[in-house]
Specification:
- By secondary structure, this protein is an all-alpha fold.
- Helix content is 71%, strand content 0%.
- It has 17 helices and no strands.
- 40% of the residues are buried.
Length: 395
């Protein structure tokens, strides 16, 4: 295999693809309620969905999904970028040129996705924060691990202390913004929907402080993925099995303490950043190691194999999830905005994801990459990639 081409199927780590598929499921579980209503941004969910079933589902999603799967996706992004850096090490062209094109293409996709489909886009954020990885590609695994802990823990402690000092002011519901969101997202006018989407993005992302906040949330998990890649712990499973089991147990304990533990004390809002920052990081590491270890057993490998198809097309499936939700919830489509309960939200997620698994498997029987993966890779390597599968290829 030439080093200036994408990784071939027989060189892939299927448990990494399965983890990407699982991450997409978790992200969709969080994104569908945010597509359906403005409460994630402006508060008030308990007012509109206050019944016991809705509260129970919200608790389950908060503990097991919220801040667990975009962090897993971030881990896998850092893992993949370090893998690309190492594969490009012997090219005559500098590695930063290829990786730079990859990030520029991701930035372009992110702009289109963020402003035409979904204000909660992660692609634009990954492209921007991904530029900081150039400071870490050639660092030792020990240095990367040190920065991971510093960037994870220090901001969590500082921001939690700040939130605690103003805890009586946290939890304000912006009813005017909620009303405006309902009016625009339920409008049949595409312009109204896009204006509201733009307003929500600006509310959540504008300013230097928002960028700093974004770095604190995303960069640590990029570095965690880079560290695992440098150590090859997810490559040589038999060699590192004992170590991975220890990591699994420790991550699970931290996961439970920080994600579920706050519910023993009323789940105070001022602890929310610590819950997501530390608990989310631990849960994502738990999930990736757990899937990796399960995949080594034939029964679980067969059961989890469906996730590999959607994981190999994660870019295409992520964008298609937003397109489906846009059509389902906004005025120009089926106009379900604000009318889907948390229970129905879960059922919608299962339905969408199931269809994507089937479609992804079908697509990969005929093509080597998903359609957007093909575009992204062609731009990255500045060469049109072959997309149709040969008869000798397998899925």
């Amino acid at each position: 295999m030439d080093n200036d081409t994408p990784i071939q199927d027989n060189k892939r780590l299927p448990w990494i693809d399965a983890a990407r598929g699982m991450a997409l499921f978790g992200i969709l579980m969080v994104n569908v309620p945010a597509f359906n209503a403005p409460f994630f941004l402006y508060g008030g969910e308990e007012v509109f969905f206050g019944d016991s079933i809705s509260r129970s589902i919200h608790t389950i999603v908060d503990i097991f999904f919220q801040a667990s799967f975009y962090t897993l996706f971030s881990f896998l992004f850092g893992f993949g970028m370090q893998m690309m850096r190492e594969r490009l090490s012997h090219l005559p062209i500098p590695y930063w040129v290829v990786i730079g094109r990859r990030l520029m293409a991701l930035f372009g996709f992110g702009v289109l996705h963020a402003f035409l489909l979904w204000h909660g886009d992660i692609l634009l954020s990954y492209a921007i924060v991904g530029c900081l990885l150039f400071f870490f590609y050639n660092q030792s695994a020990k240095t990367v691990l040190l920065w991971f802990f510093v960037l994870l823990i220090v901001p969590a402690l500082y921001i939690t202390e700040r939130y605690y000092s103003i805890k009586e002011f946290i939890g304000w519901v912006n009813y005017d913004a909620i009303s405006q969101s309902f009016q625009n997202y339920k409008s049949e006018s595409i312009a109204d929907v896009l204006y509201q989407n733009y307003s929500d993005w600006m509310y959540n992302n504008w300013g230097v402080l928002s960028f700093v906040f974004l770095v604190m949330i995303i960069l640590p998990m990029f570095l965690a993925g880079m560290f695992f890649m440098k150590k090859k712990w997810l490559h040589h499973i038999e060699v590192h099995r004992k170590k991975l089991r220890v990591i699994l147990i420790v991550a699970f304990i931290v996961f439970l303490v920080f994600k579920a533990g706050p519910y023993l004390f009323g789940n105070p809002l001022w602890f929310g950043f610590m819950q997501d920052q530390i608990g989310g990081a631990a849960s994502s590491i738990f999930y990736i190691v757990f899937i990796t270890l399960l995949f080594q057993y034939p029964f679980w490998k067969k059961l989890l194999n469906g996730l590999t198809y959607i994981g190999r097309m994660s870019f295409t499936n992520y964008i298609s999830q937003s397109i489906i939700c846009f059509i389902l919830f906004y005025g120009p489509g089926f106009n379900l905005y604000g009318s889907v309960t948390p229970l129905w939200s879960v059922l919608i997620v299962i339905a969408i994801f199931s269809v994507q698994v089937v479609w992804s498997k079908w697509w990969l029987t005929h093509f080597r990459f998903g359609p957007l993966e093909w575009v992204w890779r062609s731009v990255t390597y500045w060469k049109k990639q072959p997309i149709k599968k040969r008869q000798t290829d397998s899925i």
